[in-house]
Amino acid sequence: MGFFLETLMGGLMAGMLYSLIALGFVLIYKASGVFNFAQGAMVLFAALAMARFSEWIPAALGIESKVLGNVLAFASAMAVMIAVAWLVERLVLRKLVNQEGITLLMATLGIAYFLDGFGQTVFGSDIYRIDVGMPKDPVFLFESVFPGGVLISQEDLVAALIAALLVGVLALFFQKTSTGRALRAVADDHQAAQSIGIPLNRIWVIVWSVAGFAALVAGVIWGSKLGVQFSLSLVALKALPVVILGGLTSVPGAILGGLIIGVGEKLSEIYLGPMLGGGIEIWFAYVLALLFLLVRPQGLFGEKIIDRV
Prior knowledge:
Structural class: mainly alpha
Distance between the termini: 54 Å
Helix content: over 70%
Largest sheet: 2 strands, antiparallel
Number of strands: 2
CATH topology: ABC transporter involved in vitamin B12 uptake, BtuC
Strand content: under 5%
Order of helices and strands: HHHHEEHHHHHHHHH
Number of domains: 1
Shape: globular
Strand order of the largest sheet: 1-2
Number of helices: 13
CATH class: Mainly Alpha
């Protein structure tokens, strides 16, 4: 039982990180109808910016405090992501208003490849380390309940708590703030939102900035765990099955979908891996998403589209 709980909790903690990345897909799709294939590249680009700024800024300013250096590096990386959001709206989205969905999808693919190449040009292509002081040593919990206790990674636990907190803050932002309500209005009907004075271009900059913030937090967490390398964008694309499961327009769906994928991966790797062979953790999420597409294409919480003829 203790081993099962270890696996289950590990899946839940990984699932929260998937949910955080998936929120970037959901936020942008809700506000602009664009499936942002560049979200994985945004995670990598943000992590690269954080890793390099955490080296450059303390060296340039003579800062010895690691905490202050990380704060300034995070603020600088966030400023870069806001600049990226403004440029995307100004140079891409504004030119493609009312275009076909496939056109917008190809535009985000172009953005993804540009960010990958530009990030390598500006920040380099080595493997970089992000040290934000997250604890690395595992701990044993519930020792009085289970023999030997349940082994939990402190780093995974802290990362999951940070992701859960940010997911909650973003959910409240959408539900309780005037800007969040404007974002939901734009998501429901672009033309109606414009007719009541909601500036569409400003909303797009805000939502891409929020998605950039989510990408930055996810990039810092994954970079701290795995190191900042170009395979990070592939890890971030694990959020694609998450949004398929939860629904492209649902914030709660992104959360639940992430938890399902995270737990399913861990349990299948442990209990089905010996029978099916290794590597099941790599393809499990995509096979599950394919099954959902066959049975419920709109996802768990997505809006069902009915065409009347």
